[in-house]
Amino acid sequence: MATRQTQSLARLMRAPAIILLLVWMLVPLAMTLYYSFLNYNLLSPGQTSWAGFFNYQYFYTDPAFFESIKNTIILVLGVLTITVVGGIAIAMLIDKPIFGQGIVRILVISPFFVMPPVAALIWKNMIMHPSYGVFADIAKFFGANPVDWFAQYPLFSIIVIVAWQWLPFATLILLTALQSLDGEQMEAAEMDGAPAYSRFIYLTLPHMARAITVVILIQTIFLLGVYAEILVTTNGGPGFASTNLTFLIYRAARLNFDIGGAAAGGIIAVVLANFVAFFLMRAVGKNLD
Amino acid sequence: MGQIVLTKVRKAFGEVEVIPGIDLQINDGEFVVFVGPSGCGKSTLLRLIAGLEDISSGKIEIDGKDATDAPPGKRGLAMVFQSYALYPHMSVRKNIAFPLKMAGMSEAEQNARIENAARVLNLSNYLDRRPGQLSGGQRQRVAIGRAIVREPAAFLFDEPLSNLDAALRVVMRQEISELHQKLKTTMIYVTHDQVEAMTMADKIVVLHAGRVEQVGSPLELYNAPANLFVAGFIGSPKMNFITGPEAAKYQAHTIGVRPEHVEVSKDGDGWEGKILLAEHLGSDTFLKVACPVVGEMTVRGNGEMGLHHNDTIRLKPRADRIYRFDDKGLALK
Amino acid sequence: MARAVSKNAKIGYTIAAWTVALVIFFPILYTIITSLKTEQEAIEGFNLIPSFTFESYQTVQSQNDYFKPFMNSVILSVGSTILALIVAIPAAWAMAFSPTKRTKDILMWMLSTKMMPAVAVLVPIYLIFLRTGLMDTRIGLTVLLMLINLPIVVWMLYTYFREIPGEILEAARMDGAGLREEIVHILAPMAVPGIASTLLLNVILAWNESFWTIQLTTTNAAPLSAFIASFSSPQGLFWAKLSAASTLAIGPILILGWFSQKQLVRGLTFGAVK
Ligand SMILES: Nc1ncnc2c1ncn2[C@@H]1O[C@H](COP(=O)(O)OP(=O)(O)OP(=O)(O)O)[C@@H](O)[C@H]1O
Ligand SMILES: [Mg+2]
Fold first, then answer.
1. Locate the ABC transmembrane type-1 domain: which residues (chain A) (predicted)?
2. Is residue C17 part of a domain?
């Protein structure tokens, strides 16, 4: 492998990808940082001025900001709880000897391939609609009053949709991990008289720990950016009840044309994401030979 | 033809010098085995000869021509890898044909050679299979087949049998030896199994930390090891080394006694000792004996003597089979 | 665990697993069913047997020119993936076959660019698109999606390429193959499955990308994800029609997705779970 001519060729082959990503990473981020210190509104571009930390200060004093942070955290934690717990349970169920395992797998992973706006529309109109949704049909069947999910429990409704989209991902990864569990180890534990629940606690869970970590971290990255589901269903409302940080920044930039404010929000989002990314990189890095 | 001459061949990976400088001549038709402990540079040396690594300095000549900077494909050498390195997406036939195709040989000639190699190697029925559908031994044979068809100046083998089970290893070992007798082509064979080295080689090169410790025929190395390292490495079980007053009696710093060169008796002459462990193999019994005078010894006893753990016995080395070494570990003659 | 399980247990597990699977799949199933209903049937209440009319599909095409966003989706997802492959194959190749001390760091850094939240660069990207006339163009969005998925593409390819044993390449070199023959006869055939898997997964990811497509398109370059999002407005909402549009938007990718289960795990966990 290590002959001289291959080395310089290799450098040439790596360069385009590295340069592209370097530009992609640095230029927009630097621009965001710059804009975040400006008073800059697209509606009055003539009045652009240096703002110092005003945009950050503004965020800090805006109650909508804290509500959106709170919503972001509830959304991420809610979805993570549902998908990890549900994922473990479903993975263990599918891993059992069942008829039609292949089809079951396909059915279970399908929601992952549904694009976010479609997922949101399906749930909003087909399932959770107060008059025509399946939930409403069920409620009427039992003689109860249908719930207007998106008006009464907007954040919860969005959590349900997003969890439905990500449950397959968690299931699939946990299933992959589960299938690499050493059968002999399990049998040894059974021979030692360990009952099912302690085999689960002491063998299965530790074996899946790494996969669970990966699921949590990767999902968190994506869940921090949930957007289309909110846009299509509640549009962030009522009030700010279902606005997360991503949606708040979108609002500032695209509905209020507040470039400076949106940029400051973006920088805050970067800090938040980096916090999570730090742990993800460590988990993945360990696995690189 | 297949003469290979290495002159002052040196190899360093960055700062780390793996081979400080080796001079070695391999004659046409010889079966040469490189042995040595793990990490001593056997594979590296073989890969330098193959051209898969650049040498840091020195010269490699193949059949009198300077091949130091020739690319691997142009050296006229064929290599059999430890992992077989078969092309998984090609049938056995295509695998074997690949070097011929690269050499631009005609289809007819290719087929003739493939059929021939397949017959020699008992692969005729498997030519249309993929490597994934073959057993370990069959894969090994395909790898050898791919090497044979090129009619190379020399074959290079890097631990080709280490992925096979013990029984198959013996079979393949014999097949490779027979192949050598048939083809009479130079073969360089890397192994750390000294049984393979002893049984197959015309010439053994013992390597240690990138240096050549000794070059010679199997029996030369067995009978006249040049130093303590070779003495300890060649022969199984390992030679016993004794220092101190007992060695001084032979005017040596260290003396070596092979387990098979000791007379074991229940009450004769020699060092007294107690049996720590007796391994009964039927014909032979290998004994680990604690001797107060010379320390722990491994010896070969007669299978019929009925020796057991904790028995007290006497060990008498055969006087004409005592190896003597000076304080630098070099053999005294 | 290759052990015979009692027949009853197996039936029990089967019923449980199928129930769970059908509940999870139900929203999709019900959407498909509704798309085959008439608008009247669709709002009449729960009903699993449609009248199997393709009326709604026709309406979606005739009223909204559905074909246009569909083609945009195809062009964007396939185009961005191929662009990414063109850049990523040589890079992953070099990193897998001529690794240096820094290769691992470079890979980790590439991964880290994927962690950047999209909103963080919404402002500059939006302004750049606005000012350079890239807004609502396929080319702008294709390049953007390429950049977004490039780290995953490099990573997936890298993990696939690294599984090609170095000894095989050395064997080819010993057999007299030059760099060109080595690539044509040995590396390319062995790399094709990995490249195909990477392509598949990234087409899926690009197809479903919704943030940027909604931000940066209006009508011209809008792919399905942006097109469908526009259905959220209350006026003109018809259940069967909405279902038909949804079914068309997810159908192709759902089927591709079923074929990509394995790659999905590997691609989205960056090789951390195999
Ligand atoms: N590409 C490389 N870069 C740096 N060091 C290397 C490289 N290849 C081998 N070495 C080092 O060179 C030394 C000799 O390696 P080599 O593979 O030749 O040993 P070996 O005798 O074949 O051992 P084994 O019996 O285990 O195969 C080892 O210490 C090894 O770590
Ligand atoms: Mg070796």
1. 69-280
2. no
Cα(B41) to ligand 1 centroid in Å equals 5
Pick from B164, B192, B161: nearest CA to B177: B161
Please tell me the total count of domains within chain A: 1
The answer as to whether B209 is a domain residue is yes
Tell me: do B247 and B209 sit in the same domain. no
| pLDDT tens digits, one per residue of B106-157 | 999 999 999 988 988 888 899 999 998 898 889 988 999 999 898 899 999 9
Question: Per-residue pLDDT averaged across B303-315, rounded?
Answer: 83
The reported pLDDT for the residue numbered B11 is: 93
Q: Which of A117, A131, A246 is closest, CB to CB, to C229?
A: A117
Which residues in chain A have Cβ-Cβ distances shorter than 8 Å to C256? Answer: 113
The per-residue pLDDT for range B179-224, each reduced to its tens digit, is 999 889 999 999 988 889 999 999 999 999 999 999 999 999 999 9
Please indicate, yes or no, if residue C150 is contained in any of the structural domains: yes
Q: What is the CATH number of the domain that holds B194?
A: 3.40.50.300
- Residue owning the nearest CA to atom 7 of ligand 1: B13
Same domain assignment for residues B196 and B48: yes
Q: Is the pLDDT of residue C256 over 50?
A: yes
The answer to whether C83 and C142 have CB atoms below 8 angstroms apart is yes
Q: Which atom of ligand 1 is nearest to the CA of B45?
A: 18
Which residues in chain C have Cβ-Cβ distances shorter than 8 Å to B85? Answer: 165, 167-168, 170-171
Q: Are residues B226 and B268 in the same domain?
A: no
Provide the β-strand partners of residue B284. B302
As a whole number, mean pLDDT of residues A82-98 equals 90
Between residues A17 and C269, which one has the greater pLDDT?
Answer: A17
Domains in chain C: how many in total?
1
A140 lies in some domain: no
Point out which residues pair with B59 in neighbouring strands. B7
d(CA B207, CA B214): 8
Residue whose C-alpha is closest to residue C264's, from C202, C217, C186: C202
- The range of the structural domain enclosing residue B103 comes to 4-231
Whether residue B83 contacts residue B161, with contact meaning beta carbons closer than 8 Å, is answered with no
The alpha carbon of residue B55 is apart from the nearest alpha carbon of chain A, in Å, by 10
Q: Which atom of ligand 1 is nearest to the CA of B14?
A: 4
C23: tokens are 């509940």
Is A128 domain-assigned?
no
- Point out the domain boundary residue: B231, B249, B265: B231
CA angle (A270 as vertex; C198, A75 as ends), nearest 5: 80
Ligand 1 closest atom vs CA B37: 25
B40 lines ligand 1 (CB under 6 A): yes
**b/e for A169-182, b at 16 or more Cβ within 10 A?**
bbbbbbbbbbeeee
Please tell me the distance between residue B44's alpha carbon and the centre of ligand 1 in angstroms: 6
Mutate to test the interface with A, among C6, C30, C40, C116 (most CBs of A within 10 A): C116
C216 is in which domain, residue-wise?
67-230
In terms of DSSP H, where are the helices of chain C? Answer: 7-35, 39-42, 55-64, 67-97, 103-113, 122-132, 138-162, 166-174, 179-181, 188-208, 211-216, 224-229, 239-258, 261-268
Tell me how far apart the alpha carbons of residues C206 and C229 are, in angstroms, rounded to a whole number.
Answer: 16
- Residue B308 lies inside a defined structural domain of this protein: yes
State the CATH number of the domain containing residue C130: 1.10.3720.10
Compute the average pLDDT of residues C53-76.
Answer: 83
Report the sign of the C-alpha dihedral through residues C246, C249, C255, C260, in that order.
negative
Residue C198 lies in a domain: yes
Distance in angstroms (rounded) separating the CA atoms of residues A175 and A181: 10
Task: Tell me, using a 6 A CB cutoff, whether residue B146 lines ligand 1.
Answer: no
Asked if residue C14 belongs to a domain, the reply is: no
Tell me what the pLDDT averaged over chain B comes to.
90
**Domains held by chain B: number:** 2
Give the residue from B200, B231, B262 where a domain finishes.
Answer: B231
CATH number, domain containing residue B270 = 2.40.50.140
Domain housing A92: 28-113+167-285
